Amino acid sequence: QNTSGQNTSGGGSSFDSDPDKDKIPGLGGSDYPIFTNIPQTSFACNARMAQSNMMFADPETRCQVYHVCTANQKFSFLCPRGTVFHQDTRVCQWWYTVNCPAQAQQVAHLRSFGAS
Question: Where does the Chitin-binding type-2 domain start and stop, copy by copy (predicted)?
Fold first, then answer.
């Protein structure tokens, strides 16, 4: 079983199907990430992010992990299987309701304005 959270099949499955019988639409590891622990990623907080009082989806985990930036630390959290983090609602939602690439653009935008 792939636990990397990365799409390994190249195909993806139908939203209406549950090929792995886990009661979550789609195929775990292909349609949505299946991390069981928070992986090490290159995500780093900058000064603007720490001041924004926001939570940030981590695109390297296909948004299953999110981070809270504070003045001195980064706190990381893992969404449950089949869910990914939505920055606007600040909750983990079903994978098929969140546009992870759009979340990644929001993070990149904040980083570009707070490079300190």
Answer: 42-102
Mean pLDDT of the chain: 82
Considering only the C-alpha atoms of the chain, give the largest distance between any 2 of them, rounded to a whole number of Å. 46
- The Cα 31–Cα 12 span in angstroms is 5
- Sheet containing 55-57, strands listed edge to edge, beginning at the edge strand earlier in sequence: 55-57, 65-69, 74-78
Quote the CA–CA distance of 57 and 87 in Å, as a whole number.
Answer: 6
Could you tell me which residues are beta bridge partners of residue 86?
91
Confidence band, pLDDT 50/70/90 cuts, at residue 19? low
Mean pLDDT along residues 100-115: 76
